[in-house]
Amino acid sequence: MTDAPAAPGRFTWRFVTPVLIGPVLNPINTSMIAVALVPISHDLHVATSTVVWLVAGLYLASAIAQPTMGKLADVFGPKRVYLVGLVVVLVAGFLPNIWHDFSAVLISRILIGIGTSAAYPSAMSLIRDQSARLDRQTPPALLSGLSIASQTVAAVGPVLGGVLIEFFGWQSIFLVNIPLAAIALVTTIVWVPSDATRPQRPGPKPTLRDVDPIGIVLFAGALASLLVFLLDLKLSMLWLVGVTLVLVAALLWWSLRSRHPFIDLRMLRRNGALSRTYLRMLLIYFGAYTMMYGFSQWVQGSAGYSADQAGFIQLPTAVLAALTSITVAKNRRLRLPLVLSGLIPFFGGVLLIFLHAASPLVLLLVVAAIFGVPQGLASVSNQQALYRQAPGDQLGTASGLSRTAVYLGSILSSAAIGLAFPHAPTDAGLHGLGIAIAVIVGLAALLALVDPALRTRKDGSERVGGGLKSE
């Protein structure tokens, strides 16, 4: 089967379809599991402290694999990397349905994290390559569509997961990957231009040495040791902090001396706007994931709702996130949306402090709704900032690192939830999470407010990217 080139001069629906499908696989798997933790724990007879590794395993795999896949896409071509990732997702979707054991579920989650990590950085690179082929600016609606699709699916995930679990059991949330990955695989093969037609970049052609396996190993080791410590906060595990610091120091030393580092620290130091975008994403998504997982567990474990009811309680989050994403899709100004993406969940975190097991359902729905708007704002606006700020020849790696920032926020979220709910969800634990959310997302709002790269110029436009050339 041959690759069909896109119609000259425009982005066709054939190109856009596979580019939009693949990136939704990671967020839908990230969010559906929120309402499945309690059923899996009961069915497989594993403790809450153990089942949380289903979340953490995907976080860790994604945090490491996203920039790795982005780097591979930059070097070997995004279409090749995209297709390999989709095949991995297909295999992972079957595993828990043929092997009824917690180990199988955990392995599946890790494989899903690795496979889905190829989609987003590859899609961003495919879009920029197509813009160069067509010799036209990337349509803002396409970038927003990528963000809206992922955001909407992530928000709908708990609802979909709750319904599937109620009627077909928790294993069904893994089967969802199979048709989605299969459709993306076939349409990518048929409709996405070959990597052989990629526009030539200035300088020498990338080789295998540009992947920097030493940098990847150091990065993976530092993240893994940090995650294990955060999920088991004991004095006896404090040695892992030392391991993390040593590996981080080694990564910094290596990255500053390597010609083609996995993480280009020189670029990040020069590109302060991009570095601050990563930091904002970490802070904002700490709040989003703490709400998604912590609130969902509390609704089931303390307030007494079932998995499908817990999913529907978060329906206002899904609806408002989708509507907000569509509303700001064509907005080119980033400062106000980014400030609001931290300010609004600040008030949501404060409201969590006043909830208790007997709180009326309408209050739970209101709290869930408050977190929908900032999710839509953050998803669209941070992605636009990333696309403008990232160097063109490193867009895959930069996109992957942005997802790593998101998953670092998720990893910290898992640690916070573990501290708040050491044995079972409680009102006091939820109140502690509310305080944590308010403080962290408040910092994100302040960071966006004072960011010099987002300040408005005299002509009314915004300066984004710290002086870097944008698309």
From TrEMBL:
Topology with respect to the bilayer: Multi-pass membrane protein
Keyword terms of this UniProt record: Membrane, Transmembrane, Transmembrane helix, Transport
Domain Major facilitator superfamily (MFS) profile residue range list: 15-459
Key word Aminoacyl-tRNA synthetase present: no
InterPro entries (UniProt xref): MFS (IPR011701), MFS_dom (IPR020846), MFS_trans_sf (IPR036259)
Transmembrane regions listed in the UniProt entry: 12-38, 44-61, 81-99, 105-127, 167-192, 213-231, 237-256, 277-299, 311-329, 336-355, 361-380, 401-422, 428-450
Predominant place of localization: membrane
Localisation: Cell membrane
One Pfam family per UniProt: MFS_1
Protein name per the record: MFS transporter
Organism: Gryllotalpicola kribbensis
